[in-house]
Amino acid sequence: MNRDGFGSRLGILAAAAGSAIGLGNIWKFPYIAGENGGAAFILVYLICIFLIGMPVMLSELVIGRKGQSNAVGSFEKVKPNSPWKFTGVLGVGTAFIILSFYSTIAGWIFAYISRAITGKLTTINPGELEGFFGNLISGSFEPVLWQFIVIFITAFIVISGIKKGVEKYSKILMPVLLLLLIVLAIRSVTLEGAYAGLEFLFKPDFSSLSAKGVLEALGHAFFSLSLGMCTLLTYGSYVKKNEKLPSLTLQITLADTFIALLAGIVIFPAVFAYGLSPDSGPNLIFITLPTVFHSMPFGGFFEILFFILIGIAAITSTISLLEVPVAFFTEEFNLSRKKVTVLIAVIIFIIGVPSTLSYGVMKDMTIFGKNFFDLADFTASNILLPIGGLLISLFVGWVWGTRNAIREATNEGKIRFLLSGAYGFVTRFIVPIGILVILFYSTGIIKP
Ligand code: PFF
Asked: Is 417 helix (H, G, I), strand (E, B) or coil?
């Protein structure tokens, strides 16, 4: 059977950057940076991105392209009959968990889109936004309905396949997002009192950083770059043999980091200008941003556009998340793409409902002191993704061998890869040790 694949370099970049850029950048990065004191956290985050994330990304792409198969099949092709294929199984499982809560937040975004379009959002006084948002997410019917819609749209695009679904939509949507964020950043930094926000973002104060913060920075580096659960491995399997993977890795990483910082520049100056609190957690963009829009000319219009674009950024990420189990089940069990997609979408919806209800009827149900939503987010982002990244690096560094990986990365020696030596060294030593130390340290296994 002929495998589907990406049609052009721009298409690959848009789809991979579309996967990386999402709620992680615009919703999560600002709020966890805010909770962990700002600049110091961001510095640690950047180190995790470039020192650990980027090499893991290249490793995922090369395994996928070498294996030309799904998360599990690629490990099997590269190293037949070895237990390493369970790294792929872990990735498939993680996709279910992340989608279960990711679709909750994406659902809130869609609810905001509908409110923005009907004009209900712009007419609310900034002081009442908190209550408005609280009301929305504590409901039982509406948030679940929006979650369903998010999963439905995702499944619809995934059924259309890579070229006609994932690639086509990503190519149009990503550039528009960038443009709008730039407009908003300009508005935000020109507000009176914006400077304090920039200082919060760029002037580190290490006393506000904890071990937990460092784990969150690492976990978020994986989450934001879509690493550790074989998403980019799966996308890598759709990339042609003559594409340059090292430069693709750099471009995806830079695009993702730029958008996260830009989101910070949109949000924190405004937070400080309006005397809001930077550590208000997950509701930061739902309360702060509408406050900003309220004060700007044509704010209502920008507001609609903004939430639509975050909605789109979320969808280009959910499709990449769904592609991992869909590719796995269709290829390994020889099933139809359509049937598999529908079935998985239904399962994800069912396991996702408790996350959505975590702010309403199920808010008192906690496990280890966390509600379902937080538990799914914490387990997937801070534990499973780093473990996935660890396994992928160990596989490349010590099992398949960095020489083989570099041969694939350089298209059998046809292209130059200046940092190949550094990539090999970092993959074998720095990445595994870095991930293990952070995991042990922050879970309390090693005491400072
Ligand atoms: N990178 C996405 C974001 O920042 O929103 C989330 C994500 C997508 C995580 C795909 C993991 C993944 F495999």
From this structure: coil
Burial (0-12, 13-18, 19+ Cβ within 10 Å), 436: middle
Cα 22 to averaged position of ligand 1 atoms, centre (Å)? 7
Q: Does residue 310 sit in helix, strand or coil?
A: helix
Instruction: Give the number of other Cβ atoms within 10 Å of residue 394's Cβ.
Output: 19
* Domains (range + CATH), the chain: 9-442 (1.20.1740.10)
The tokens describing 325, both together, are: 């189990």
- Residue (of 282, 203, 232, 178) closest to 389 by Cα position: 232
pTM, to two decimals? 0.94
**Residue 279 C-beta-side C-alpha neighbours within 13 Å:** 7
Angle (nearest 5°) at CA 226 between 201 and 242: 120
Gap between the Cα atoms of 428 and 63, Å rounded: 15
Contact predicate 388/230, CB 8 Å? yes
Mean pLDDT for back-to-back runs of 10 residues, the chain (448 residues): 76 89 93 91 96 98 97 97 97 97 97 92 86 94 97 92 70 80 88 91 88 89 96 95 96 96 92 84 84 80 86 92 97 95 98 95 89 93 94 98 97 95 97 91 70
Atom of ligand 1 nearest to the CA of 22: 5
- Give the residues surrounding ligand 1 with Cβ less than 6 Å away: 19-20, 22-25, 98, 223-224, 226, 229, 231, 317, 320-321
Q: H helices within 274-384, ranges in order?
A: 284-294, 299-333, 337-356, 372-377
Question: What are the Cα distances from residue 291, in Å, to 27, 115, 352?
Answer: 16, 15, 30
